[in-house]
Design a protein that fits this description.
The protein is an alpha+beta fold. It has three helices and five strands; from the N terminus they run E-E-E-H-H-E-E-H.
């Protein structure tokens, strides 16, 4: 599984992720509060759009690296760096969810 951090300024709001099996999503960072959940809306929409165009999850994540969200994202951007995680559970631990 690969992921990239979603930021607003210096604040990490959450993580966009994609797995080799075709799954992709957004994991909000609990410490960022409601802003973390709102920031996920445009990114999830972009992931869905990529899927409808037939883009595989890992490539969709690559497309979003360095991108900025318009509208509800509150000025969030996806960092241009990709990290690895052992599993979605590990990423949830990183987000503070578990």
């Amino acid at each position: 599984m690969r992921y990239a951090r979603v930021r607003c300024g210096e604040r990490v709001l959450g993580f966009l992720w994609a797995s080799a099996d075709g799954a992709a999503g957004y994991e909000p960072r609990n410490a960022a509060g409601a802003a973390a959940f709102e920031a996920g809306v445009p990114w999830l929409s972009r992931l869905r759009s990529a899927r409808l165009r037939g883009v595989r999850a890992p490539e969709a994540l690559e497309e979003l690296l360095g991108a900025a969200a318009e509208g509800r994202g509150g000025g969030s951007v996806v960092e241009p760096v990709v990290y690895g995680a052992v599993s979605l559970d590990a990423l949830e631990d990183l987000s503070g969810r578990s």
